[in-house]
Design brief:
With about 120 residues, the protein is an alpha+beta fold. About 35% of the residues lie in helices and about 30% in strands. It has a six-stranded antiparallel sheet.
């Protein structure tokens, strides 16, 4: 990585850590039913979850982090079973079943509406 990008990377990592802490403060999950980790493909359509863990090889984990599926990111499943359409950071992303199985989330009860560019009218 070029040296000129290191300060930006440090700032981004710091910002992501702060966002993760804020999400945990705003959306504490205390109910045992909501603490269970499940793959994104098993979320019901319209349900929001917080990414807990990425499984798979390191290159896969890095790719999905770059797409926005980093630990503590909020993911709303829009639709799908074999291919999961998800909303992450305001962007709709389609995941094949294998990728969706490798992203483990905990369901959040408070965020169960799908919001995106088409719904912001």
């Amino acid at each position: 990585m070029p040296n000129r990008l290191l300060p930006i990377r440090r700032w981004l990592c710091s910002w992501l850590e702060t966002q993760s802490q804020l999400v945990q403060l705003v959306f504490p999950v205390s109910s045992p039913a909501f603490n269970a980790r499940l793959p994104v493909c098993q979320l019901a359509a319209g349900t929001t979850g917080r990414v807990c863990e990425l499984t798979g090889d390191e290159s896969f984990c890095q790719r999905v982090r770059e797409m926005g599926f980093g630990e503590a990111a909020l993911v709303t499943k829009i639709s799908g079973s074999s291919t999961s359409l998800c909303l992450v950071n305001g962007t709709r992303i389609a995941l094949n079943h294998r990728a969706a199985m490798s992203i483990l989330v905990e369901r959040l009860p408070a965020l169960s509406t799908v919001e995106g560019p088409d719904n912001a009218r």
